[in-house]
């Protein structure tokens, strides 16, 4: 069956440093100063629609702000995509696999709204304490792991797809006396959706309009 994919690649994810909404001008960029032992996600799936290539760690700058290394930072990232398919003759169930890695902690929310028929469904994913002054007691540390979450979304007969909103609150812990090299930050994600009868058409929401934003 066709698989659709959204992944953290250059130019497709937006950020905010304060309250919503997102701006089309605020596009996340690949992290230039990375910790050499960050985990990676390899693109090993045959993708029928959406993003192709290995996900990249993203941040709102190409490195953490040196003035904020000692206090930590909280940054919000988001994607929105409309998945369109021919009208269904019977109910199908899509399976959505979400992989997330951050340095240091995250809270994520995915809102799925079927088009024409069906009600919004909200999924929340969390790892770590999202307080900038928290001291991770690992090992293993949060930044050493890729977290996997699998959810399902039934699409009823006559449905023509769904809107997907994905937002991540990413927290980089404070490191007093640290530097951009000793306290880097980044977000890595991969969302794969299967169960389609035909490959969907994907339309990006620019900027993403998040109806249930994280705080």
Question: What does this entry look like structurally?
Answer:
- Helix content is 0%, strand content 41%.
- It has 215 residues and is mainly beta.
- The protein has one domain.
- Strands 2, 6, 8, 9, 11 and 13 form a six-stranded antiparallel sheet that branches.
- A hairpin with a 6-residue loop joins β8 (105-114) and β9.
- It starts with a strand and ends in an 11-residue tail after the last strand.
- The mean pLDDT is 95.
Write the SSE topology.
Elements: E1 4-7, E2 14-16, E3 29-30, E4 49-50, E5 58-59, E6 73-84, E7 92-103, E8 105-114, E9 121-127, E10 147-155, E11 161-172, E12 186-194, E13 201-204
The chain-level mean pLDDT equals: 95
Query: Treating each run of at least 4 consecutive H or I residues as one helix, how many helices?
Result: 0
Poorly predicted sequence stretches spanning 5 or more consecutive residues: none
- Proportion in β-strands: 35-45%
- Residues in helix, %: under 10%
Q: Helix and strand succession? A: EEEEEEEEEEEEE
Quick gist of this model?
With 215 residues, the protein is mostly beta strands. Helix content is 0%, strand content 41%. A hairpin with a 6-residue loop joins strand 8 and strand 9.
Which labels suit this protein?
mainly beta, elongated, single chain, 5-stranded mixed β-sheet, about 220 residues, 6-stranded antiparallel β-sheet
